[in-house]
Every structure is written in C-alpha cells, then in structure tokens.
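Incident log, structure service

09:12 report received: a user says their structure output differs between two submissions of the same chain.
09:20 pulled the input from the user's history:
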Amino acid sequence: MASTYTGLGVQLMTTGEKAGTWGTLTNTNWNIMEQIAGGYIEEDINGGAQTTTLSVNDGTAGATLAHRVIKFTGAITGNQIVTIPLDVQTFYFIDNGTTGAYTVQFKYVSGSGGTVTWAATDKGNKIIYAAADDGTNPNIIDFGMGNVTLTGTETLTNKTLTSPKIGTSILDTNGLQLALLTATGSAVNEITLANAASGSNPTLTASGDDANIGISLATKGSGVIKAEDGGGTVAAVKIAGKETIWVPATAMYAASTNGCADIAQVELTAQYPEVKSLDFDTSSDEYAQFAVAFPKSWNESTVTFQTYWSVSGTNTGTVCFAVQGVAVSSDDTLDVAMGSAVANTALAASGTTNDLMVNAESGAVTIGGSPAAGDEVFFNVYRDVSADDQTADARLVGLKLFYTTDAANDE
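09:34 re-ran on a clean worker, output below:
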C-alpha cells in the first residue's frame, strides 16, 4: 500500500514500505511538524485584486500553509484573497504586514463556510483556527484574541484595565480630542472618581499624599465655570475673588471733627428718586465715617473704592474723594489711627444739575491695624479739596468697596 499524506503534507508510510529511506523521510516529516509547531514564514501577496492559493507540498518541507506563523507582505493595490485546501485543520498566527488600504480575506479554497477578513486599514494580528469541520463548507474562525496591537485601532468590550497608562489625550469615537492629559514628573496628588448607589451622589475627590489639597478648575480666556441644577438651570459657579460692598450715605455719619454736613434728603420730582446724601463743601477737607465687618472669606488685604456723587449746580469742576481705614480685632482698643489715605482720580461734573457721577475705581487702600478674620474695619471718607476744583458742594450718595476673597465660604 502506498503512502498517504496529511492535509499539511506529512507523509504517512505503510508498514514495509520505503525500505532504506525511512530515515530521510522521517527527518522530512519532523521538519514539516517543526514548522507546523512554530515555524515562521512570509508570504508576498503584492499586486492588484487577486487570489493567492496556499498549496500543500506532500512530503516536502517549506509549504507556507504548513507554518504556524504567517506574515502577509507586499504593497497591495486591490482587495486580496488567500485560500487553503479544504482538508487543512490547524491554527495560525497571521500578521497582515501589507501596505495599501485594501482588505485581505483568509478562507478555504471553496465552499460557503466562515472566513476571516482584515479591514482595509487593519494591519494587525489575528489568531485563526481552520476547523476543517465540513467536507464541503468548512469554517475558518477568528479567535478574537489578536485584535489589540500597538498601532491598530480596536474596540475593547468588557475588558478590565488595571492601572493603564494613557498618553497625552483621550479621543472620542470620531477620533477627536475629548480630554488632554498632562503628566507631572513629581506628582503625589491626583483626583479620584467614585460612582454611588441609589440616592447618593457620585464624587470627584482630591486625593494623594498631601493632607490638605483642593481641586483647581481653570477656564480659557474670558470663559466661566458653569453648573446645572436638577431643574436644568445653568449658571456660573461663584469663585473666590473680587467682590463688592455697597455703602450708602445713610450708612455713614459725619465725623465729630471736621465733619461733613449731616445726612440730607432732597426731593427732585415727586415720586422720582430722592437723594439722600452727605454734603462736602469746597473750603476744607471734611470727613465722614462708616464701618464694615467683612466676610470671613476676605483675604485681609487691600481694598479699592468708587464714589457716587452729584452737585446741585452746573459747574463742571472736578471732585475727588479719599478713603483710609483701620481694622480692630476683639479685645483691641478702638482708639487707633487710620491707615494711609488713597484718593481716587478726580472726575469732572457733567454741568447738569443733579446728574449722578461715578469716579473710576481707586488704587489700593492698605488697611491699618494688621487686619484679621472677624475684624471690624473703620473707614474715613473725605473730600480732598486740594485735588479738585469743583465750586459747589459735593453730595456723596454712596461708596462701593471692592475686596478680594480667598475662601469658598465664610465657615
């Protein structure tokens, strides 16, 4: 009886056959089995749309289809088909190393069984099992274990990534930037994201080695940080920074020495705004005072101010006010000198009686007395007649104080 061959070309000799040649034939079989077990070969499939047939070499080593690892190579200019005989039963590690954006299909030479195809831009690796499970329509099956490559684009489903290292960005499904990541070489702090059970909020938490750390949110240009409540209302998130306090003339009082006139109320037209003001004359610096207990979130630093005033006449001369202050803590004496005064830029009156005039914001006023949280701060405000030339009394309607916060709240 003559020898037979397996689907991958291994010669099966019968008893008593091939006398004197078994050594050579056996060595050839071992070579074939070695390449089946772990052999590597490259198959050039360059060219336009075509079918490349991988044929068996019975009793001879070197057949492409009898290697465990096959790399397809070549510049392809059309879709490719690579076939194997119907009786081949094995598995392959196949690397699509071709160039050119065309598909590569791996299949049995005929029949309607399953096939495996690399997409036009897929230059990755696949583990493929040739089942030979039907004499006419056998199936080729992609194990799906070789989809993740260093450079390929793949979709991962139900995969657990433990401590993954991500580069400089995370992209959306369209390949567009969703989030950019910046690495800090000496980083010891980070953020922790946590989901939550029903009825509880998910959290974004500052975590790391340091005991006291916050979370910084930065906008670009003039953008603002916004939040949306459960009702769909979107509004800017309040951020510690520059704040204002309005101090009306009614909250001030004339100083005992060199004081301005006491509060006056002037009706212009019935049921129109009535002016309550402190009037400062033109002959000398006259003073008024007020006090503010700033929020605890105040940074205890300098303040600035704007003055709101009018005149009763039509003179267009300028008006200039100055402010000075001192902070007093609990159990400190109230008999303490004010800090240095700062004047705002003199502003010319409009020339129209009873127009409201608003000076530009002043320079920084340093509060005397080493301010601390919880202090009461006393202010002098006075008309600096040496810096203006208004011939009429200046009616101070109010003053806006600007201060800076450095805490999220006043707890």
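09:41 both user submissions now match this output. Likely a transient worker issue. Closing.
09:42 reviewer note: The chain has a mean pLDDT of 92. The chain has two domains: 4-142, 243-404.
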